[in-house]
Every structure is written in structure tokens, then in C-alpha cells.
Write a structure and sequence with these properties.
- The chain is α/β, with parallel strands linked by helices and about 325 residues long.
- It contains 14 helices and eleven strands.
- The strands form two sheets. Strands 1-8-7-9-6-10 form a six-stranded mixed sheet, with helices on both faces. It has a five-stranded mixed sheet with strand order 3-2-4-11-5, with helices on both faces.
- Strand 7, helix 5 and strand 8 form a beta-alpha-beta unit.
- Helix 1 crosses helix 10 and helix 3 crosses helix 4.
- The protein is globular and about 60 Å long.
Length: about 325
Amino acid sequence: MKKSLAFAAVGAIAAAALVLSGCTDSGGTAAPSTESSEDGELRSVRVAALPITETAALWAAIDEGIFADHGLEVEVVPAQGGAQAIPALLSGDIQFAIGQPFGPFRADLQDLGVVIIGNYAPSFADGQDTSGVVASAASGITRPADLSGKRVSVNSLGAAGDVTIMGAVAADGGDPTTIEFVEVAFPDAAGQLDAGNIDAAWVPEPFMSGYVASGGTFVMHPFQETVPGLTTLTTITTDALVESDPELVDDFAAAMTEALEWANTNEPALRQAIKDNLKLPDAVADSIKLPVYSFELKRSDLEELAALAVTYGVLPETPDFDRIIQQR
């Protein structure tokens, strides 16, 4: 498997997809206090999340007041991926992150004290999924095996995207070791495809549907080809926060549980949150398939994903799942 850095590109949403360095939506840099005041004021917490449609549940639940009902004032800090949020978690600049499990996997192998306290959004086991691989029509790519020897982008190297793509290519008779993976932020993928800098891209909604609608080719849903129904986004924090402020962690977990259950029955609010936060046209936001949210982790899926990563040399060994998974 070959890897290289992404091409630089700028887009409206990409500008918001910050690699966390203390920057916030409001421009502040100081980490907020998580301590409750005696007069019952809300505790401020910062949560890293990708600027993608799955985050609609978090945005909408905040607007609905669900987190406030649990005594929390939540600031969503945009990030490119879960792995990029790990340094900010460890520094205390943020308290929680919504992201792929590979950040916690690697952090556990380094004994950094990062834990997964809940699920967020699993993929669909069949039918249309919320992410997939797309290719330019000129590439001639139509199936997983065609990705052999091609340049394929993912948002974060060495994570669920490239691992499951390699598994799907191998299952289709291709050679996954010949794929050159490059790191490209989701919003930049279409431009890189059109420029011919990459042959295919793994992207979530709204980028998947948008590119296909503009004439691109849908290739596959890699999660369905490898671990159907895979947990794609998890809720992450640190052991240090669990130990120092278990009440905050429990309150956030309770709020997330309620928020995700509420999200599954309030589709109009989620679609409005997508329009408000991603600035998508109404027609696009109203047609995108939304995930079915859940805070309940499926450990076996994460174990299978880690084993696949070891097979393809993405991880040197599997993490300690008894330590890393702390379902609240």
C-alpha cells in the first residue's frame, strides 16, 4: 500500500474542517471550564466533529436544548477526522470527539489513555449507505478490483476508509497492495477528481451523492463489502476526564443517548441543521440519506475492523478492547 500527502485545496466547507489547534467557531482559544457553578449555570464543553451530514444529530440536538437539559452548553469544533482530534483531547482543549475509532486504536497502542464511551452512527448493512467510493467517469473504474494500481483519496490515512477499501478490492480479486492512498479532505475530493489528481475518492454524504449527480461514477460502499453495519463514528474522550470528572462524562453520555434517540424520529430538524451548518441547497439536503443513530457500541465490529487493519499493516497489533471500550 502506497501513501502520500494530499494536494492543497480550498473550499467553503473545507475552510471549516480545521485540524484542531485550539481554534473554535467563535474564534476563542482558551479551553472552557467544565465545572458546574453553584448557581446552576451550564457547564461548557467542546466537542470535535466532522462537518458532514452525520453531524446533523449533534447540531439539531443542541438547538433542541437536549444538552442544556443535561446541564451542558456544547460548542462543536470542526475537525477533519477523529485521529486529528486526539492531540486536542489529550491537551484538554476539547473534552469529547465524534470520529472514526482508529484514533483511539492508535492512542491505545501508545498507552495514551483515549477511550470510546459510545457509538454515534453505524453504517447501513445493505442498500444505500451514507458513504462510498466514487470515481471520475474518465477513469473507467466501475468495481472494487478496478482500484488496483489507482490513486484513491481518503480523509485520513490508515483508518476505516483505506482499510475497508483494501478488503473490498481483495475480495473482488484485485491487488490492494498496489493502491496509492492520498489524504484529501472530503470537501476537496470532487475538485481533485475533476483535475485528474486522483482516480477515485472515498467520501460521505453529501459529497457522494453530489459527485454522482454531477456525472461521476459510484463504485461501492466499502463498509458493506467488508464489515456490513460497521460502526463508523464513535464518541471519544480520555481516561483522565473519566477519572477526574465522571459526572461530566456520564451527563454527556446521557445527553448523547437521548439526542441520538431523538434524532431518529425528528428527520425535519436534522435536515434543517444540515442546511444551516453545511449551507447545502434545499433539494440536496432534503434528498440525502440519513444514518440511524445509536449510542450503543457493537464491540465485535470494532474488533473485526482492527483485525483487518492488522492484516493490511495499518496497525501493528490490535488494541486492548477491554481498556479502550468504556460504554457509558
